[in-house]
Amino acid sequence: MQAREATYIHILTAIGKRYHAAGEGSRLKRILTETQALFMGFFFEDYFPMLGWLDRLTGMRARLERNFSELNGLYQEVIDEHKDPIWRREANRTDDAIDALLNIQRSGANVTDEHIKGVLMNIFIAGSDTSSASVEWTMAELMRHPSVMKKAQEEVRSIVGKKGKVEESDLDRLYYLKCVMKEVFRVHPPVPLLLQRETIQQCRVDGYDIPAKTRLLVNTVAIGRDASVWERPEEFDPERFVGSAIDIRGHDFELIPFGAGRRICPGMGVGILVVELALANLLYSFDWELPEGTTKEDIDMSEAPGITVHRKSHLRLVAKRV
């Protein structure tokens, strides 16, 4: 199982098109991987505006412009396809998010192709990558903690029964799975640093004077592993959430993987749903083992750099159909 590849296999709900691992999928993967790298790359202009010319010497400016051109071309292809009546008829498809935006555009509203490209940026970069990372971290932790894996599988299979698959309507009853997900978001938040905030006016927080126009970074990793809030913060233990009212939807500030307040992640509801549904079906349909010759101690939990934190190495598991 390589959950990172799931990011590039399909982004169907939003754009009505599958991207398989080969062909277009490999192109998409290459472009988005480079985008992630540039997000984390060092640009002199970000810190020393007068030295922005150095970014051209280092080659970072050229990489940025090339990546922008490739992304812009990819987004334009998606938009043009949705405008093409022949493609729509041959694909025999229903409307998706891009169609909804194009309908608004046709109605005369001030929605341009550039606006739609901005939505596509969120779908490709923010929406899919974080979900695949969360699935992969969860499976890694479950393989390292067999008792948790067993308990989660028993819950899913007892509730779903012989239906053959887990459906959205089943998720509200999967209480322990939700505890597992809370613990994963605590230990492995998909976005370790939330998007920057800027103070509107001077304020005082916990004895510190914060000037207006100060840029703030919210460290969700530090919050989730704060020893003054959590017992044994470095241990993976979903049992800590059994009977707890703490949730991940921005109301409890000791656990805010999606942020909080008016700037909370707009895709939180869909993201949680997608991850829970994917995991529930993986646990329901398969028993999971490590490749022959490896043990749970061999699972590398190192993190790769990026705005979304993936595992440094692929998680390789053997699935056995139940």
Automatic annotation (TrEMBL):
Coiled coil (residue ranges): none
Annotated InterPro entries: Cyt_P450, Cyt_P450_CS, Cyt_P450_E_grp-I, Cyt_P450_sf, Cytochrome_P450_71
Keywords of the record: Heme, Iron, Membrane, Metal-binding, Monooxygenase, Oxidoreductase, Transmembrane, Transmembrane helix
Localization: Membrane
Protein origin, superkingdom: Eukaryota
Any one Gene Ontology cellular component term annotated for this protein: membrane
Membrane topology classification: Single-pass membrane protein
Protein family (similarity comment): Belongs to the cytochrome P450 family.
Protein name per Swiss-Prot or TrEMBL: Cytochrome P450 71A9-like
Cofactor(s) annotated in UniProt: heme
Annotated residues for binding of heme: 265
